[in-house]
Design goal:
The complex is a heterodimer of chains A (about 120) and B (about 110). Helices cover about 0% and strands about 50% of the residues of chain A. Chain A has about 120 residues and is mostly beta strands. Chain B is mainly β. Classes of the chains: A mainly beta (about 120), B mainly beta (about 110).
C-alpha cells in the first residue's frame, strides 16, 4: 500500500512569507499529526487532526495552523515566516488511538518537507 | 509534562551488541515506542512496550521498567545499515489522541 506522501519535498522561502505544506496519509488512516524537527529541539509535536478536527496542539505560536479534509488529507500553514522556522516538517498518519487503550498506534511518517527560510 | 532523555551518541563495531537507554520523567503514558531515522529520511517504527519487560523483534529488542522510569533498545549483530538516529517516544495519557512525545534522540555509529 502507498505510504504517507508529503509535498513539496524541499522549499525555500523568504522571511515574512507564508507557506503551505501538504500530507496525504495512508489509506484508512484517519489521524494525521505534524511534527517539526530541528537539530536543537529534536522532534516537536505541532498538532493532530482526526475527522477534520484538531484534537491536540503543541506549544507553537498561532502562526502555525493546519486543517484536515474529508478525505483525511491534511495541510499545515506557517504565516509570517521567521528564520527559526527552518526545519524538517514531518507528517505522520496512524489508526485512531482510542482513549484509555494501551494498544500500539504506531505512526507511519512521510519523508518530510525540508523548509529553509532565508 | 513529559521529558525523555537519551545519550546523544553511541558508537559500536559491526557484529556487536549495543544498548540505547531512555530515561523519562512523565506523568503517565500508555507505552514506550522506538523509532529509527536515517539521515534525511522518515522515522520508522521499530518496537513498542505497553507493559514492563522485554519485547523482541528480530535483531531488535526493547525493554521497559515503569518503576525505574527507564527503557532501552537493544540492537544485536550490528550492521553498517543500523547507523542512524534512534528515538524513544511515549503517548501521554492526558490529552488523548495520538500525540507522541519524543526523546532527545541517539545517533548510533556502526564502525568496521
Amino acid at each position: 500500500k502507498a505510504g504517507v506522501t508529503q509535498t513539496p519535498r524541499y522549499l525555500i522561502k523568504t522571511r515574512g512569507q507564508q507557506v503551505t505544506l501538504s500530507c496525504s496519509p495512508i489509506s484508512g488512516h484517519r489521524s494525521v499529526s505534524w511534527y517539526q524537527q530541528t537539530p536543537g529541539q529534536g522532534l516537536q509535536f505541532l498538532f493532530e487532526y482526526f475527522s477534520e478536527t484538531q484534537r491536540n496542539k503543541g506549544n507553537f505560536p498561532g502562526r502555525f495552523s493546519g486543517r484536515q479534509f474529508s478525505n483525511s488529507r491534511s495541510e499545515m500553514n506557517v504565516s509570517t515566516l521567521e528564520l527559526g522556522d527552518s526545519a524538517l516538517y514531518l507528517c505522520a498518519s496512524s489508526l485512531v488511538g482510542l482513549a484509555g487503550s494501551s494498544a500500539n498506534y504506531g505512526y507511519t511518517f512521510g519523508s518530510g518537507t525540508r523548509l529553509t527560510v532565508v | 509534562g513529559q521529558s525523555l532523555e537519551q545519550p546523544s551518541e553511541v558508537t559500536a563495531v559491526e557484529g556487536a551488541i549495543v544498548q540505547i537507554n531512555c530515561t523519562y520523567q512523565t506523568s503517565g503514558f500508555y507505552g514506550l515506542s522506538w523509532y529509527q531515522q536515517h539521515d534525511g529520511g522518515a522515522p520508522t517504527f521499530l518496537s513498542y512496550n505497553a507493559l514492563d519487560g522485554l519485547e523482541e523483534t528480530g535483531r531488535f529488542s526493547s525493554f521497559l521498567s515503569r518503576s525505574d522510569s527507564y527503557g532501552y533498545l537493544l540492537l544485536q549483530e550490528l550492521q553498517m545499515k543500523d547507523s542512524a538516529s534512534y528515538f524513544c517516544a511515549v503517548r501521554p495519557i492526558t490529552g488523548g489522541g495520538n500525540k507522541l512525545t519524543f526523546g532527545t534522540g541517539t545517533q548510533l555509529k556502526v564502525e568496521l
